[in-house]
Amino acid sequence: MTTFHKDTWELYKSTEMAKQLTAGETLAKLGDDHPEIVALCADLGKPTRLWDFGAKYPDRFFNFGIAEKNMVTAAAGLASTGKIPFVATYASFLGILAAENIRTAVAYPNLNVRLIGTHTGIAMGFYGSSHHATEDIAITRSMANMTVISPADGVAIAEMVEESVKAYEGPIYFRVSRGREEQVYTKDAAKVQNRIGKANILRKGSDLTIIACGIEVHEALQAAEQLQDKGISVRVIDMHTIKPLDREAVLNSARETGAILTVEEHNVMGGLGSAVAEVLMESGVNCKFKRHGFYDEYSLIGKPFYLYQHYKLDGKGIAMVAEDLLNN
Amino acid sequence: MVNLTASQVKVNLIKEKAKLSRLETIRLISLAKSGHYGSSFSCSEIFATLYYHVLRYDPNNPKWKNRDRFVMGKGHSAVGVYPLLADVGFFPKEELDTYTEVGSAFGDHPDMNKIKGIDFSSGSIGHGLSVGVGMALAARLDNLDYRTYILMGDGELQEGQVWEAAMSAPNFKLGNLVAIVDNNKVTVDGVTAENMSIEPIRDKWESFGWNVIDVDGHDIEALIRTFENLPSPDTDVPTVIIADTVAGKGVSFMENGYEWHVANLGEDDKIRAINEIKEMN
């Protein structure tokens, strides 16, 4: 059940869209109370939706042109004066292209820059590997001082962007998809459902835990549903914050379900799966374990809907991977 | 006459402080047993002119919002700045004695979170001007009239990011941004012009839309005049000062030699160098 046509991306039911790219909209709401917010883009203000902030606060919105290194480093200069710069561009040009600038100018001085890498993983499909980002978690996670967050949907990123402005110190790398994905959370003005650093258990289960991040959370829930039909009880955890990782959620799952499958739209080397594996290995808690994602490979060309199927990163594929893990 | 005398006193003071920067550079590098002599000595007069005449700062309030910012794109010259920061009162001089020891605030490249008076951590060549663009944008947003000064090496101009930043500053109308190119004409591997020529420097900056000023980077009176005559920070066009300098300036056997970009003086050479610096005019 996709709300975008699988071939044309034509919108079916716009009201049901999660819109992952809600940062600009959220910032526009926060802008009056937080004059320290500024936004920077590199000729991708439109597809990252930072334009929503720029339309309301043109004086606090800077288009750096196609020059990501300058943009990220200038954001660091702005942050050194007390601003909270939000920098958004495709993840391939942020967490990967500008990695050294992020490391040296943002992470090392521990500045309050919020980096938003959009169109992560293989969301760009047939645009090819230059536009994919399956390494950015590994890169940013290894930078000291850096917080790494991969929200499940637009509701989640809106909540954590707000928290990052109101009550969070230090640099953050947000990793969000294209904005054409299914919703996981239903917006509720009365309660905050996503808090930085705290994993969400979205489904109870006793035979296996699927720990996912980003758009794979929705797919993990689909997989759990399918596995339920086969009598397999699956816990699903939205591990939106990859660093610092909610260790307790991992260890409880290992003890209580005896098996963990991590799912991410990222190379299995260095990403969410590696972070979970590190916690498990150092804890002495033993369980069946598998990291699922890209297996040290560049994606084929293809339309995203079919690519996710091909790489078993849709609900059905994840269910197959999970069954293999439990049967071995 | 009074004015002339006052300016002469100022020039002499700056001259002495440039010597202090050089002599302390030698002392500190001897503690570390390795460091950047040549590329620090080429900017001694620039450092001294900035800290004793140009920059607006308060050592008792290092984070003052409306202070001028000074960022070294060529962070490897920091060893020449630390002694001046101590001398003007940002921290006690004795702290410099820890230079490069385990856990010291002071290393070859400066750390803004450890050293009062350092406005930005640097070391990765080519970042400085971009940082300056951010600081200058912030001044505009906050309606503050501070200037942001960015020191770059001539070799630094080989970094592509410099030109991203150079393109963006006039675009954002940052007349409050001042770049200084320490044109000492050498890099680690040799003579800049032979390794990867960055000439014509002036034409490049002009074509990017900057106000370009040439100056002898060791002529204190000329430096003072240049800084005093900068366009007002509320104007639209950023300024770049291309300072013609000599690597290793002040020590005859170091001058113009790329070999002294990073080095360690032996005891005899150290004494020769100190004596020559003391006798500089």
UniProtKB/TrEMBL annotation, chain A:
Q: Which SMART domains does the record cross-reference, listed alphabetically? A: Transket_pyr (SM00861)
According to UniProt, the name of this protein is: Transketolase
Q: Name one Pfam family in it.
A: Transketolase_C
Transketolase-like pyrimidine-binding domain span: 17-183
For this protein, the record's CDD domains field holds: TPP_PYR_DXS_TK_like
Tell me the cofactors it needs.
thiamine diphosphate
Instruction: Give the SUPFAM superfamilies listed for this entry.
Output: Thiamin diphosphate-binding fold (THDP-binding), TK C-terminal domain-like
Which InterPro entries does the protein's record reference? PDH/Transketolase, THDP-binding, Transketo_C/PFOR_II, Transketolase-like_Pyr-bd, Transketolase_C
Gene3D superfamilies linked to this entry: 3.40.50.920, 3.40.50.970
Q: Which organism is it from?
A: Bhargavaea cecembensis
Name the keywords, alphabetized.
Thiamine pyrophosphate
Superkingdom in the source lineage? Bacteria
The entry assigns this protein to a family as follows: Belongs to the transketolase family.
Automatic annotation (TrEMBL), chain B:
UniProt keyword terms in alphabetical order:
Thiamine pyrophosphate
Q: What cofactors does this protein use? A: thiamine diphosphate
Q: Where is the Transketolase N-terminal domain?
A: 18-272
Entry keyword annotation includes Signal? no
The UniProt entry, under SUPFAM superfamilies, shows: Thiamin diphosphate-binding fold (THDP-binding)
Q: Write down the superkingdom of origin.
A: Bacteria
> Which chain positions lie within coiled-coil regions?
none
The protein's matches in InterPro entries, at most eight in alphabetical order, are given as: THDP-binding, Transketolase_N
Does Ribosomal protein count among this protein's keywords?
Answer: no
The record's family statement is: Belongs to the transketolase family.
The name this protein carries in UniProt is Transketolase
Q: Which organism is it from?
A: Bhargavaea cecembensis
